[in-house]
Structures are given as C-alpha cells and as structure tokens.
UniProtKB/TrEMBL annotation:
Pfam families from the UniProt entry: Tetraspanin
Organism: Anas zonorhyncha
Protein name, entry field: Tetraspanin 14
Localization annotation: Cell membrane
GO annotations of cellular component type: plasma membrane
PROSITE patterns in UniProt: TM4_1
Lineage: Eukaryota, Metazoa, Chordata, Craniata, Vertebrata
Amino acid sequence: MHYYRYSNAEVSCWYKYLLFSYNIIFWLAGVAFLAVGLWAWSEKVPHWPLQVLVDKSVGIQNVIRVFLRVVVILPSGDAFLGSAAQLTARFHEHATEHKEQDGLSRQDPELPVLQQRQEQGSHTRPAVLLVPLLDFQQQLHHGVLSDLTKVTGLHGLDPVVLVLVVGIVMFTLGFAGCVGALRENICLLKFFCGTIVFIFLLELAVAVLAVLFQDWVRDRVKEFFENNIKSYRDDIDLQNLIDSLQKINHCCGAQGPDDWDFNIYFNCSSESKSREKCGVPFSCCIPDPAQKVVNTQCGYDVRKKSKSQWDDQIFIKGCILALEAWLPRNIYIVAGVFIAISLLQIFGIFLARTLISDIEAVKAACSYRPWPC
C-alpha cells in the first residue's frame, strides 16, 4: 500500500545539464554580441559612456521637472466650476508663469495657493488640476519622445543598436536558462520558456503577415530604405551597411539612383553646396577590374548626365528589386535558416517544459511524504 504519490519522481540530470549546455552557448553568444556592440559604440561616440549619459539625461531631467509640477492643488471651486474657456486660459497663464520663472530655483507659483488653502482651513476642499499640459507636451516632444519618434518613424538605422539589442536578449535568456537549470528554479525556467514561446509566435506572425500583406511590406521596406538613405552620412556603420548592400546586390538606391536625391549631400537642388551634389555613393559605381584602388569619387556628378549614360558607370537597378529577385533564387537557404532557428527554439521550449514538469513532480511527491525531502 502506497502512503504517498510520485514515489519515483526525480529531476532528470540529462535534461537538466542538456538545458544548461543549450543556454550556456546562447549566454556566451550574448556576451560576444554585447562586447562587439559596446566596442563599436565606443569607437563612434567620444568619451563614451559619460557623454551619452549626460546628453540623454537633459531631456529626461526636463520631463521629470515638469512632471513634478503637473499636479497643482487649487480650491475646488476654482478648479472645476469654470467654463472650458476659463480652464484653457488658466492653462496658458500657468504655462507662461513657468516659462518666466526660470525653473524651480525661484519662488514656487504654487506657494500662494497653498498659503491661501491654509488660511481658509476646512472651508475648501483640495482638488487636482492638470495645468501645465502645454509645457509638458512641449518638453516631451523636444525631449525624450524625440528619440521614440526616430524609432517609430523608421529613421536612420544604427546597426550597433541592433547588435546591442540582440546581445541583451540573448544574454538575459541565456542567464535565466543557465541559473534556472542549475538551481532548478521554476520561476526562471518559466521566464525563459515563456520568452522563447513569445519570440517564436512573434516570428511566426511576422512570416504569415509578410506573405498575406506583401504590398504593405513592400511599402514599409521602401520607406525604410528611403529614410536610411537620408541618414547615409550620419552614421558610419549605417553607411558601411548600405555600401555593402549596394555592392553585393549590384543596385543603387531603394528604387533607383534618383532616390539619392533624398540625401542632402547628393541632392541636385541649386541650394546644395556639397561636392557630391547630383551624384551617388561609390558603392553604386560599376567596378573596373583593372583598378586595384577603389575610386571613392566615381559617383560624382553622375546624375547630371542623361540617364542613357548611366548604364556604363553605375548600377541602375533599385535595391528593393534586387532583393525581390534574390529571394526566389535563395528561397531554400532562407527557409533552411528559419527552420533551423525554429527547431532550436522548439528544442529549448521542450527542454524547459520537461525540466519544469520534473521539478513540479518532485515537489508534489515531497508534499505527500510523511518526512521532509
């Protein structure tokens, strides 16, 4: 007769150390990505990371400073019994007062109101009024949210940021998986498993949407290319990425060489004083096998000529068309990469779920034993 259930429950060492080995590889890869990303970032940004922290803290400090004075205590009658026009006028008046007072270092405009409330005693009830909305919105627009706008607007892509994001995700998941497997920590294992499931479902959804909404994806890719063309000279890593893409695929611009008119350095407008005016980057030039040294000025003034003369000097096919032609030729390679990544993710989910089940079974068996485990 059995006095408790799960008498043979135990944690499988095979699954435990297989999951640990699985995650230690991803953790080391995450460390490598972070090291490369931080090194590349330090090469681009002088006095990194101090200068970056100082620059980013300015906008955040302004937002916090305004947020601290958003909630103003006023008598309830003044706060809510006025008309919409009166409240709007109060917004502008309060915002003007804050602009004239040069920050919080001078006398706080809320002080007379607080003194009035203390003199009135219990005859008034405190009410909350969000007054400096215009000032707060302005600080947000010119401060922290300007960076968010750059991301959501698909402005210039910094490849280093992409490397850092991938490194942080891999480092975090690898660390959670390693510690969770060694310590048999269900919380860390569930975090690892849940994150992998979320990433897998996200990849699956993106793949399905890319097939169903090809025109929308094509428009987004076009917008992405054009915005990065605008930022071609702003970031050296982005510049090298675009040059490599154009040289490998024998293409120029998003839809053609005329797309480089979006860039202020290659723009053909009469106001432009750039030496590269009405030209294209050297990566658009058709390479000459006889030249051993790359001519970085081969694209100067090319677009001043008639389009019939472009064929002998630069690539005229857009990179979007080049990628659309490249994908069918290499569909098996692309599909193989996605299948391999998916199988690795499914394998990690299987190991994590199996180890979680073993740990829960051991805990359940311990709860039925008359002695502690």
